[in-house]
Design goal:
By secondary structure, the protein is an alpha/beta fold. The protein has two domains: about 30 residues, no CATH class; about 170 residues, Vaccinia Virus protein VP39 (Rossmann fold). It contains seven helices and seven strands. The protein has a seven-stranded mixed beta sheet, with helices on both faces. The structure holds S-adenosylmethionine (SAM). S-adenosylmethionine binds next to helix 3, helix 4 and strand 2. S-adenosylmethionine (SAM) binds next to helix 3, helix 4 and strand 2. It holds the Pfam family FtsJ. Its EC number is 2.1.1.166. One of its GO terms (molecular function) is rRNA (uridine-2'-O-)-methyltransferase activity. Its main location: cytoplasm.
């Protein structure tokens, strides 16, 4: 996608009640080519392009029949899955409400709730080939705390993937600061044949988010 067009950038006047950082956020949002493209393509989030780009590179969605989307709201990733794997069963969960998407079962609840994994599994009706996690903890502004909280979600997603995936399946998760920590990396390498990190072009350069792609699930007996 072209990033040109600087001269056409929209300028945001600073409203009295808007803080400097929210003005910066709004300005960047208004001038972001992915935000514009998402509107044109009917995607609910610019995040849709991160999954599209990761799929272009790693063929994550090829032939999948069951997909779990952790942190589904507002639904951009699920729209991409629906489009690229039209027959796949999709089950998602989020703390926030998500507008319905055709053929997608959505739970509005905390993935860390003890009841959540069984509900997702039951709704899917069989083992997924792909578990996606774009979950991000609400940041509190304290770097270590934010990192630990988000990595806690990644780890919970990893265990869910290990407990539910079909052999050969993939776990894709958003991670922070260049990758996974050693314990999580060891866990993933034990259960998956390949573990890679990627930063798709749609992921902002100044954001510390990356994605980990654990592919080739070895199966529960082998792990
Ligand atoms: C970056 S957004 C996901 C965007 C989504 N992939 C899309 O394309 O529209 C991250 C989501 O993770 C959700 N989230 C964070 N913690 C969660 C938790 N414990 N359980 C469920 N969802 C959670 C947030 O509410 C938020 O909607």
């Amino acid at each position: 996608m072209s990033r040109s067009g600087k001269d056409r950038d929209t300028r945001v006047k600073t409203a009295k009640k808007r803080t400097a950082s929210s003005t910066r956020w709004l300005q960047r949002q208004l001038n972001d080519p992915y935000v514009k493209q998402a509107k044109a393509d009917g995607y609910r989030s610019r995040a849709a392009y991160k999954l599209s780009e990761l799929d272009d590179k790693y063929s994550l969605l090829k032939g999948v029949t069951r997909v779990v989307d952790l942190g589904i709201a507002p639904g951009g990733w699920a729209q991409v899955v629906r489009k690229r794997a039209p027959k796949a069963a999709i089950v998602g969960i989020d703390l926030l409400p998500t507008e319905p998407i055709d053929g997608v079962t959505i739970f509005e609840m905390d993935f860390l709730d003890d009841a959540a994994p069984a509900l997702l599994e039951e709704a899917l009706g069989g083992p997924p080939e792909l578990v996606l996690s774009d979950m991000a903890a609400n940041t509190v502004g304290h770097k270590q705390t934010d990192h630990l909280r988000t990595m806690g979600l990644v780890e919970a997603g990893a265990w869910f993937a290990i407990e539910t995936l079909a052999p050969g399946g993939t776990y894709l998760a958003k991670v922070l600061a260049g990758g996974t920590d050693t314990a999580l990396l060891t866990l993933l390498k034990t259960h998956f044949r390949s573990v890679k990190h990627a930063k798709p072009p749609a992921s902002r350069k100044d954001s510390s988010e990356w994605y980990v792609i654990a592919a080739g699930f070895k199966g529960r007996a082998e792990g």
